[in-house]
Design a protein that fits this description.
CATH architecture of the largest domain in chain A: 2-Layer Sandwich
Shape of chain A: globular
Number of strands of chain A: 13
Largest sheet of chain A: 5 strands, mixed
Radius of gyration of chain A: 23 Å
Oligomer: homodimer
Distance between the termini of chain A: 39 Å
């Protein structure tokens, strides 16, 4: 009796390249993660060294997946931008020093003999959430990532939305407040300049300096009854650990009124950002992810409050959700991109 | 010798339904306008009456085009919204009273025996500018129409961008200034609430009232030297003709400093709107049309000044242009939509 071989499922590899670590995954067409591994990025060792280690990492996840190498269909890469998805080059002097204008697609294609695609990590994360996370089932999914910056990606009919020259939307640079701080983007008061992690930290420092100044003035003038006391400076004093968005959130949770006002302002601006995104893209789902959105519960009330009042879009058909895949969104999205190659 | 008949070119009809007039056009596949006619809308006569007159109008343009009725391929309609392009119904109690929830697609399809599509007039105008106007050659074209409101349409790869339930983007309701006036959209300080024609007129009234108040206070207190004089009220006094966006623009051109400051504010907000649209859609072309943009020269410097500083988008590849087709954009766009049916 002839043995009927179990048909082998096609698989793809996804790679997520960040400033501190590089992860790889082998995934089945059904979205099953077969294996996963990571290495430190150490970009300063140079791109050739990095490429060798990435190649070894991909071989490792394929081996650990017990996959027939012949079943590898394609490789998708999500990488901290700027990247050029058209030419396959990375040009990120900020978080990948020495990797300037390097082509990562061609050598991997030659080594593995399969199609390889490179995408911005924000687009890869959007694709991941669309495929297996909070954006599942949406025809148009807008993902907003709030962390060191505010970025994101837009998925339309299963494809990454691209503009001129393959450039992707820069969601964080909606010009939301003309009275806001100047941003490197060229405008004042864009979303990122007010509600990113560093912007919240800066808001905290500024608010404390103002309070300190008012206290000093009060003391100099010998006045009392301003309604402010040392308590208002909150548990974390200006001389303590460096301020971060995460720390502002933690202080707000502890009841620090200054931190709460900073979070409230970021939440109100974020609500206006989401409102604007909804009116422009009219998506099925808005997904909010990134480090700052770990505190989604602090942002959600302001967002829902404003969006529910939106008379222009069919808001009862539009879902707003916290991201579901955490740090794996970009990795899984990179794999999903490979299935389209 | 047998006569070789000249091959007949397929044609379509486009219809543009506005609050005051209904226009129709017969257009060849090459974009040649073969005939054009218009009638007053007179929506108050009821939809049945309107439908009969629209049917007669289409027959008239076909006759005037000397077209074989068998060559009519389809009919496209652009109509002042809200309309539902999916069901083919018009539901616009504002500018088409008595036409509430009426289906215009089914009866025209039955009468002419061809496919019929209904679109929002803003989308139709965007399609017109994309096809034959200022958006020609762009893969992604964003059209902004600034008039009584601020609306627009987005064309991607020759198709109207649609969101959930076929809803189209509401470009005028980007939330651009948290200190701006409340809007019926649910947010404060959306683009439309600051830079539409009526918003500019309201800004003019408010600025004059403020100046009048300051003058009165000055006179009551017997003070001089505030730097304000009756001249600052400008040529058009508060008691004169109703203020409109067009009138603010005209006064600004005459040198009225109050009108100039109102136009400047609208131009700065419009610049932030265009900046935001560019960062979100990364289009090849942004087209600015509508009644207020007849004064495009007053808005262009602020727009270019800000957009040229945009470090996020490939702005040297993005064109910003005044609309080219004027009031015919929606009519020609409606015809273009018919060619896709």
């Amino acid at each position: 009796m002839k043995h009927d071989p179990r048909p082998e499922e096609p698989i793809v590899a996804g790679i997520d390249i960040g400033g501190t670590k590089i992860a790889a995954v082998a995934v089945s067409a059904a979205g099953r993660m077969l294996s996963r591994a990571a290495i430190p990025t150490e970009a300063e060792r140079g791109f050739e060294d990095g490429l060798q280690r990435i190649t070894a990492l991909v071989r490792r996840v394929l081996t650990e997946a017990q996959a027939d190498p012949d079943n590898l269909r394609a490789i998708g890469i999500g990488c901290a931008g700027p990247v050029d998805p058209v030419t396959g080059t990375i040009d990120n002097p900020y978080t990948l020093p020495t990797w300037d204008g390097v082509n990562i697609v061609d050598p991997l294609r030659a080594t593995f003999g399969v199609a390889v695609a490179l995408e911005n990590d924000a687009d890869a994360a959007a694709m991941g959430e669309y495929w297996l996370g909070a954006g599942q089932g949406g025809r148009i999914v807008v993902m907003v990532t709030v962390g060191t910056g505010i970025g994101g990606g837009v998925i339309v009919d299963g494809h990454i939305y691209r503009g001129v020259d393959g450039a992707h939307p820069e969601i964080g640079h909606l010009a939301l407040d003309p009275a806001g701080p100047p941003c490197y983007c060229g405008a004042r008061g864009c979303w990122e300049s007010i509600a990113s992690g560093p912007a919240m930290a800066e808001g905290m420092r500024a608010a404390r300096l103002e309070i300190t100044g008012r206290l000093e003035t009060t003391m100099m003038l010998g006045q009392v009854g301003t309604g402010l006391s040392g308590e208002d400076l909150g548990p974390g004093q200006p001389t303590s650990a460096p301020m971060t968005g995460e720390r502002v959130v933690a202080l707000a949770r502890e009841g620090d009124p200054v931190a709460q006002s900073v979070v409230d302002r970021a939440a109100r601006v974020t609500a206006r950002g989401v409102f604007s995104l909804i009116n422009l893209y009219v998506p099925d789902v808005v997904v909010l992810g990134g480090g700052v959105m770990e505190a989604y519960d602090l942002f959600e009330p302001a967002i829902r409050n404003l969006v529910e009042r939106d008379t222009m879009a069919p808001v009862n058909r539009i879902a707003i959700r916290k991201a579901a895949l955490g740090g794996d969104a970009g990795l899984l999205g990179a794999a999903r991109i490979a299935f389209d190659l």
